[in-house]
Amino acid sequence: MHEKNLAEIISKPAMYFSSPMEIVNSKQLQTSAKLIALNEWEFEVRQLEVATEENMNAVASTTLQDIHNAIRALGQQPGTGNQPGGKAG
Q1: Region of residue 5 (phi > 0: left; psi between -120 and 50: alpha; otherwise: beta)
Q2: Using an 8 Å Cβ cutoff, are 9 and 37 in contact?
Q3: What's the chain's average pLDDT?
């Protein structure tokens, strides 16, 4: 896999994978890259949650539970460091 493509896939996993478990099952990515991609996806979902709270009508098709299950399938525990800031105010 070309390094530029890998960086793109890892930074925008929802564009390349239909579910978090598809990342887990990918034969193209190493475990470390899978975890980075899942953490990126988690961050995106959390951003959408904040947008929804602010009435921006954003909807995530993937749940945090789906992402956390995929992270656990890789033998890791989901972290809490990927939470975007809340409402300013």
Answers
A1: alpha
A2: yes
A3: 84
